[in-house]
Amino acid sequence: MTILRAFFVWLILALPASAQQTSPPVLIIDSERLFVETLYGQRLASELAERAAELQAENDRIVESLTLEERSLTIRRPDMDPAEFRAEAEAFDSKVQDVRRVRDAKNVDLQIATADARTQFEQRVQGIVANIMLERGAALVLEQRNVVLSVRAANITDDAIVRIDAELGDGTR
């Protein structure tokens, strides 16, 4: 691995300065930055965060309600017939399990919505990234996290962010 890295460093240093100035045939992009730094990605992230906050607030209200109900049952227990208490306790446990299933389903729905939003974002910006690739005469665009070593000119993330903002805005157009 060290020999491979040394070879790449030597290759970059050995290239003439003019070759380092031009765009390489392989480009690099940081798709996470595209999502986080574009107006479109920021809008999607904001909407998803809002949904997550609403779900959390709803969860907090339900937990508070169930806690009060459990406390009430605990306080009333000494004055209750054991069979009556057992029936109420079982009903409460059943209610808690039902609530938990609904909450889990809503969390899964939010995770699916998040994945869908990310997929939609990637599909809409793919054409813009492809145009940059073609304009620069590149044959390939790699994801930044899969690149071990590169020259700065290979990274088109900043240019893609500017172009995405210009062409898509916040994604509502």
Description:
With 173 residues, this protein is mainly alpha-helical. 75% of the residues lie in helices and 5% in strands. It contains six helices and two strands. It has a two-stranded parallel ribbon with strand order 1-2. Helix 3 crosses helix 4. The longest helix is centred in the middle third of the chain and has 54 residues. It is rod-shaped. The mean pLDDT is 89.
Q: Brief description of this entry?
A:
By secondary structure, the chain is mainly alpha-helical. The chain has helices spanning 2-14, 17-21, 31-37, 39-76, 82-135, 157-168; strands spanning 26-29, 140-143.
Layout of helices and strands:
Blueprint: H1 2-14, H2 17-21, E1 26-29, H3 31-37, H4 39-76, H5 82-135, E2 140-143, H6 157-168
Key words describing this protein structure:
single chain, 173 residues, mainly alpha, two-stranded parallel sheet, 6 helices, 75% helix, 5% strand
